[in-house]
Amino acid sequence: MQPRPGNPDDVHHEHEPLLTLHAALIFMLGTLTATCAGMLTLHGGASRSTALLTAGAAFAGAVMFFRSLIAASPRPREQQQLHPGDGHTGDQQAEPARQTPPRAAPRNFRSCR
Q: pTM, whole model, 2 decimals?
């Protein structure tokens, strides 16, 4: 498939993975959790539909849990931090400092009545 010239949306990336390693690990753990929950529910005497609903809920909960538990690997741009003595000449532009957003004033709930 050849991209049309001048249209950057049609660029075909042959070497990019469909899922990152982080996402694949989380989905694998979610699938394993869902399978175990569904099999235990089915073995406990519940119907197949109940076991499928239990497996789906276990998958969703496991994906949310493992996503918060397992840290994602740093992005390539974050890995390129400049350290003194690494052979950099210092002519690269420094990243601007991040500013914290201003805090909202506390609400007066008595005036809402």
A: 0.55
